Amino acid sequence: MDLERLFALLSGIHPLSDEFKAAIEEELTLLSLPKNHMLLEAPRIAEHAFFLDSGFAMSYIYMKGQKQIENFWASGQIVISAKSFFEQVPCREFIKLMVQSEVLCVSYHGVLRLFKAFPEAHFIYATIMNQYYENSRERTHDMQHLNARDRYQKLLTHFPQIEQIIAQEYIASYLGIAPQSLSRLKRQMRGS
Q1: Residue 30: strand pairing partners
Q2: Domain with 97 in it
Q3: Domain containing 57 — which CATH number?
Q4: What is the mean pLDDT of the chain?
């Protein structure tokens, strides 16, 4: 199991001792999962957090019978339903792999063992949760203050290959616009 990408991400937050690295490795399971695999389905309790070593994932909820896309994750990112995982309460979202993916997972109890043995695990947790919070704030800000074209361009900057992976209707949902509006927007952008 190659953990270099995960260790690089975590050590960018806080230096990792060899003992901490060994303990993390002990708690991880590497899974090779197919396209369309569900990592989490509402209203289950999130029992695992994931590191996307390769692949792409998306989360969504159902509103009035329609999928509302909430988040995307690419390789090198931590995939988690934070409230459900850390509070051990039922989740409201679904998390689905959009391509075949290599995923490292850690259980809730594994994380608790790391917290108990390594105080630096708390600092890493706090930093990751702050990043999730800031990303959520940024998304809210973008929906309120950026027009659809700017939101779309920002999405393409963050996820350059997204159009090869995600259906247009899901991209439109994430942007908060109708699929027809996204098609029109893309035509306008090609024409300018």
Answers
A1: 104
A2: 4-117
A3: 2.60.120.10
A4: 96
pLDDT in tens, 70-106: 999 999 999 999 999 999 999 999 999 999 999 999 9
Burial bucket for residue 57 (CB in 10 Å: 0-12, 13-18, 19+)? buried
Q: For residue 128, which of 12, 1, 16 has the smallest C-alpha distance?
A: 12
Alpha carbon separation from 84 to 43, 48, 93 (Å, rounded): 9, 10, 10
Residue bearing tokens 């930093």: 127
Q: Taking the CA atoms of the chain, what radius of gyration do you get in angstroms?
A: 18
Residue for token pair 């051990």: 88
Q: Is 43 helix (H, G, I), strand (E, B) or coil?
A: coil
> What gap in Å lies between CA 37 and CA 52, rounded to an integer?
13
pTM: 0.94
Query: For tokens 């900057």, what's the residue?
Result: 157
Residue 186 lies in a domain: no
